[in-house]
Amino acid sequence: MLTRNSASDFMPSEPLKPGSSAGHNKPLAARPPSLEAGKSVIGNDLRIIGQSLRIISRGTLQVDGEVEGDVGGAEIIIGEQGRVTGTVAAERVIVRGRISGVIRAMTVALQPSARVEGDIHHMSLVIEQGAEFDGRCRRPADASELQLDPDIYA
Hints:
Elements: E1 2-4, H1 33-36, E2 39-42, E3 47-63, E4 66-78, E5 83-85, E6 88-95, E7 98-100, E8 103-110, E9 115-117, E10 120-127, E11 132-134, E12 137-138, H2 150-153
Parallel strand pairs: 2-3, 3-4, 4-5, 4-6, 5-7, 6-8, 7-9, 8-10, 9-11, 10-12
Antiparallel strand pairs: 1-2
């Protein structure tokens, strides 16, 4: 299940007629970012696989399913049943599930059920008792070295 908690995503039940703008007062590109920054969920029954796959969220993205590709956003939460194989890049990353790949974030929290195989590049790192981490952690001298995608936060 892929959901978006935002009133702006509601579409009318009747089909749109050509040239009609029903359901949209403004073009999508003109909407303020605050309307786009909600919470998206990749449900536990969903598996997303692709070459050069990149999922980007302007708000919070919770992964309860499986993603083979890169994930980015303002905040990424990997749920207990969630699994990501690829790079996870965000302002804040909370891991309860599994990640096989690199994590790049200002703040990273590995909670007790977390299983991470790969390097973590961070400014702040919390590893709670019970979490498993196999890799290297690196705190750069400057936050700009994290190479977070500026388009995610625009």
